[in-house]
Design brief:
By secondary structure, this protein is an alpha+beta fold. It is built from 24 helices and nine strands. Strands 1, 2, 3, 4, 5, 6, 7, 8 and 9 form a nine-stranded antiparallel beta sheet that branches.
């Protein structure tokens, strides 16, 4: 106690106590993490431990802004169907939970070695959530591995994390020379391999099973919808299973109409042909998802005859009333599109299977129609006698498949400009988000809806808490205390530096932990007459080994809410991984860079 008080005053204890209280609340309650983090930030601000500048530092942080912009970039990729093009070939359709983790973590770790892991996870998060639902794997079984794999990949190169670049800059300033792009690989790659093996083989039982796909039988509104395999579709020539149309969540392929004949009870080995009419039965969200599948188009050509462009339309549910003038007529004979400027995509009738094509369905009172229509339809017919109820079906909008290659080009340009050091990640993401909007890969509504404000608030507030520990000297005092117990043995001092960095990075950002530890490590190495390089490399690896708490790394906070996690989930899954990476780091680094 006297060490902290003497070094930095009572503010250090207030800062440490507040962070501890936030951790305790995250472990003991189900209050949203961003509320607890903002509450802790407010306590420190009111107590005068930090000023408004430090409290707001996270909200003005370039990394936080970059994450927000990348949500918009991801929206453009999602709205144009590009994410579906990436999901099927890259992630496939795993048969087991372990298989799903294996397919996910390897490419994420590889990409993270060259792309900053925070924006990578920002782009992958909606992909993995959607893929988990389709693969019938709880999202909570995949999102922590997503975050951890990105962190492990970042250890392998100098540009993998911002902390590596910060430490390298401090090393150069101290007159010791810098590291090359792949110098860290000698230790980082073994650490990543050990960590990925753990994520693939060992972490499964330690992860919670939350956010599982609901059983389709729980909702009686089962729609019948027809989709056509378009000419030139990538699905043509593939079997139903290869096309990813088997065991879909919330919807099933009931039959195929091909050249005047019907193929019922479609098997997984049935090969699709261009022009096939596929009849699906399922829930509204799943039916809407089918509209986004590249290579599938609505069976009715009426969707291409509406006045409004598809990008400006909504999916709307309407319940037919007994006063509707076309009750008793087929959808085609009643000229539904001409009368209402809306197209019927699917029909639900009290759980009953409607064994007719959409245009041939005779409307009855109580039928629930899934429509594609301009937004004005809701206001125009909300109080109409023709429908009992009119409401927007989902937040999703009809896909913009015609702009898919524009979205791919924007993404490729953003990555190329960053890798070529032409633009910073923030500027590149800003340009890419603007391009997605200007090229109409997504509209303003989809862009606003895509931003996860809870994630951004949580990250920004966590910056403030870490800043408090840093500015009050609490972090430095704790680090000095841990390293001080090592004595005069170089190996033990090195191990103490690595352990102290690992513990510190769990409560402040990895860059802040590195900034605190590098001067301590350089002083320790000089006092022992040892080469400072192993100490510095050990800090680079340890500063990224933030697996045991959601506060330790931005990517952990990003998956915290969407995965439905609690603090104990990170402790249970992350502590063994932290121990494995720490042990590998301590064992290998002095062999590559001797004292």
């Amino acid at each position: 106690m006297s060490t902290l008080v003497g070094a930095s005053g009572w503010d250090a204890w207030i800062a440490a106590g507040t962070v501890a209280a936030v951790f305790a609340a995250m472990a003991a309650t189900r209050v949203a993490p961003y509320l607890l983090l903002l509450g802790g930030l407010a306590v420190l601000l009111v107590a005068g431990v930090i000023g408004p500048g430090d409290a707001l530092a996270g909200f003005a942080n370039e990394g936080v802004a970059t994450v927000g912009l990348l949500f918009v970039v991801a929206a453009g990729l999602r709205e144009t169907g590009v994410l579906d093009l990436l999901i099927v070939p890259l992630l496939g359709r795993p048969r087991t939970e372990r298989g799903a983790r294996g397919r996910l973590i390897a490419p994420v770790a590889a990409a993270s070695a060259f792309l900053n892991n925070t924006p990578l996870v920002a782009m992958m998060l909606p992909v993995v959530l959607d893929w988990a639902r389709r693969a019938r794997v709880p999202a909570s079984k995949l999102l922590i591995p997503l975050s951890y794999a990105s962190i492990l990949g970042g250890m392998c190169t100098l540009i993998g994390t911002s902390a590596n670049l910060v430490v390298n800059g401090m090393l150069i300033d101290a007159g010791h020379g810098g590291l090359g792009l792949f110098d860290l690989a000698a230790v980082g790659v073994p650490c990543a391999v050990v960590g990925l093996a753990y994520l693939w083989l060992g972490v499964g039982p330690l992860l919670p099973a939350r956010g599982e796909v609901a059983d389709a039988l729980e909702d009686p509104r089962e729609y019948t919808v027809e989709m056509v395999v378009a000419a030139g579709s990538p699905l043509a020539g593939k079997t139903v299973e290869q096309a990813g149309l088997r065991s879909l969540p919330g919807v099933f392929l009931a039959e195929i109409h091909r050249g005047g004949r019907v193929i019922p009870a479609v098997g997984p080995g049935e090969r699709l042909e261009a022009g096939d009419q596929l009849v699906f039965v399922g829930l509204v969200d799943s039916v809407v998802d089918l509209q986004k599948r590249p290579g599938l188009v609505p069976a009715t050509e009426q969707v291409f005859k509406l006045d409004a462009p598809r990008a400006d339309r909504w999916f709307i549910e309407a319940v037919v009333s007994h006063r509707c003038p076309i009750v008793g007529n087929t959808i085609r004979d009643g000229a539904f599109r001409t009368r209402y400027n809306a197209v019927v995509i699917a029909v639900a009738r009290g759980g009953e299977r409607i064994d007719r094509k959409i245009g041939d369905i005779v409307l009855q009172p109580g039928d629930v129609l899934l429509l594609e229509a301009p937004p004005a339809f809701v206001d125009q017919h909300r109080n109409s006698n023709d429908f009992y109820l009119v409401s927007r079906a989902t937040d999703a909008q009809p896909p913009r498949h015609d702009r898919a290659w524009l979205a791919v080009g924007v993404l490729a340009a953003m990555i190329a400009l960053v890798l070529g050091s032409v633009l910073s990640m923030f500027v590149a993401a800003l340009c890419a988000a603007g391009a997605m909007l200007l090229l109409r890969c997504c509209n303003e509504e989809a862009a606003r809806r895509s931003v996860d404000w809870q994630v951004l608030l949580a990250i920004a507030a966590a910056f403030g808490l870490g800043r408090a520990l840093d500015r009050t000297g609490a972090a430095s005092a704790i680090a000095h205390g841990l390293v001080g117990v090592a004595g005069d043995d170089a190996w033990w001092a090195f191990a103490a530096v690595c352990i102290a960095t690992t513990l510190l990075t769990e409560v402040v950002t990895n860059a802040a932990a590195a900034v605190v530890m590098v001067p301590i490590a350089l002083q320790t190495a000089a006092g022992l007459g040892a080469d400072p390089m192993p100490f510095v490399v050990g800090i680079m690896i340890s500063a990224s080994a933030a697996f045991a708490t959601p506060l330790g790394y931005q990517t952990n906070l990003m998956v915290y809410g969407p995965g439905g996690y609690r603090l104990t989930d990170f402790v249970r899954a992350g502590v063994p991984l932290s121990a494995l990476v720490l042990a590998t780091n301590i064992a290998l680094t002095p062999r590559v860079w001797p004292f």
